Protein 1
Amino acid sequence: MIAPWNFPAAMIARKVAPAIAVGCTVVIKPAALTPLSALALAKLADEAGIPAGVVNVLPTSEELTATVGETICRSPKVTALSFTGSTRVGKLLLSQCAGTVKKCSMELGGQAPFIVFPSADLDKAVAGLMASKFRNTGQTCVCSNNIMVHEDVHDQFVAKLVEAVKKELKFGDILNGATMGPMINQMGVDKVKRHLEDALEKGAKLEIGGGSLGGLYLEPTVVSNVSWESLCFKEETFGPLAAIGKFKEEETVIDFLNTSRVGLAGYFFSRDAGQVWRVAEALEVGMVGANTGMLSCCEAPFGGVKESGLGREGALIGSEEFLETKYICFADC
């Protein structure tokens, strides 16, 4: 089990619990940036009475991460791989698992669409975007990314969003009252800045934010009238930048959003019942939040389609990633 840094305890628990419940032993390779959560969970597992050798943790340095990952993938002793991380790394791990035809479950990157239709309750839509965009400083795989607002309500929605950002978000040290912490590393900071600069160069309007406290702290930022050709609509930003595009026709915006090669989560707001069902079915994603910005829960299957991964975590179906189906025909016993 190769876990990410952004939810270093929750991701491990979601992988390990169903695996040991159906009788598997596990090896956890935590992210090099966040190894302590995995070690703490292993200590708790020991204190809870889980036998030695069932839950194993293999921390690595950044330099050895690729080597250790390849060793896990190529080992015939490992019968299944569960990975959460980027699509680029997921593809590499899949290729390394091919030699042993290993069972793989992959929860990879996303570019979560977030659509606001004319009939939407704008206050609920703003609350939904605040929850799905800025949680964990925008560093989750299901954070809203490709935000599209109908031209009839675009300006009103943006104004309400800016007020919510001013009122609810305070960036800085979360131990001193801030609601948003730092980015994970400089590479993440640089990507957000690059996406913001590109959007502004293509004609977007800076509504709020755009600055930093220095280091890894970025202000929550909103830009409007973003061109559909902008980088932030072609790549996963993974940071506190809410880039908002404008659309006119439902079919056109759905077609554009479905051109993405990834499809993890998607969100939309509408009070038109027919549109709710139509759009929920049309979006090429594994999970849909209709009139909500929070869709993850333990009883629901979590995962995506296209290059967002294989298999599911959570719910009863999550345990099937660690099981094999065997057919036995008895005759004349």
Protein 2
Amino acid sequence: MKRSRFSEEQITYALRLADSGTPVVDVCRQIGITEVTFCTWKKKYAELGVCELRKLKQLEDENARLRRIVADLTLDNQILQEIVRKKL
């Protein structure tokens, strides 16, 4: 999973700026992102604060790590099953 170069504080700051009435184009130009990125952030993090956003990112990172572990174990299991089949 690609790591964002923006911190949780920057994401929430951008969303709060737009909510306070600053045009989205100006917010995007100020932070250095595209409008598509801003819309993605808004869709994903609309009502989250900094703490909730941190927790969400930590959970996403752990979920990705656990998925990699499961994939590795599944691959190991398949290799061992093939070896057993070849011996019989």
Protein 3
Amino acid sequence: MSDREQPYDPYIPSGQGASTQGQNGNTRTAALQAEIDSTVNVMRSNINKVSERGERLDSLQDKTDNLAVSAQGFRRGANRVRKQMWWKDMKMRMCLIVGIIILLIVIIVPSVVASKH
């Protein structure tokens, strides 16, 4: 009976007995478990990285909002200063024009009055 062939089993690779198949099964199971564990660790690492990235994006969004508010305040302040400087420049020009007119009046009026007499 020992010379007799084993019945065909599609789940047992050909040319191997039951004891060899058991060892290969354990080795394969261990290899698959190790691969699954490795994949799980990679996925956990990826999830942690995505979470950290989300936190950094939230922080960046807050900084962007603060910068936009600061830029708007700066723009308002710059416009206010520009208008103040424009008025200051116009006042200075008016003072110069009035001074020149007064100086011309002081020079021209006495010479005209003196020439009439």
Protein 4
Amino acid sequence: MATSDSEQTTASPSTGQGTIPLRRKTEAAPVASGGSFYELVGGSETFRRIAASFYENVRQEPLLLPLYPQDDLDGAARRLQLFLEQYWGGPHTYQEERGHPRLRMRHAPYKIGIAERDAWLRAMRGAMDSVALAPEHDQAMWEYMVRAADFMRNTQEA
């Protein structure tokens, strides 16, 4: 697959306003056949890289940065990594350390509207692009991210 700097975009999922990158065309990393999604995409290292890149993007996003623990962004990155690993078929370390994810409850104290969701998706899209998953894995993960981001919305405000 040839590497390209072009980017596909779509209108914001619920509003049709603005754009969220769908997938940057990049050289996909090779993956083994068989195994869990977690194994197919490269295991812990892939999810560590996604989480680290996501939080680097959060540091640059004025809309998102106030929603995260300023004194523990590295800890937040680790928790995201563990959550994603567990969700995608890896170790259950997240649940062992923190219990059930209860995502809506954990995010309830924060105003999450359309603008926050879209900023989160831009940061996550960049993080996912940094690991260049195979197209079918990228699509599956991205579809989950869009659903999860929309599910976290707790206000109709832009």
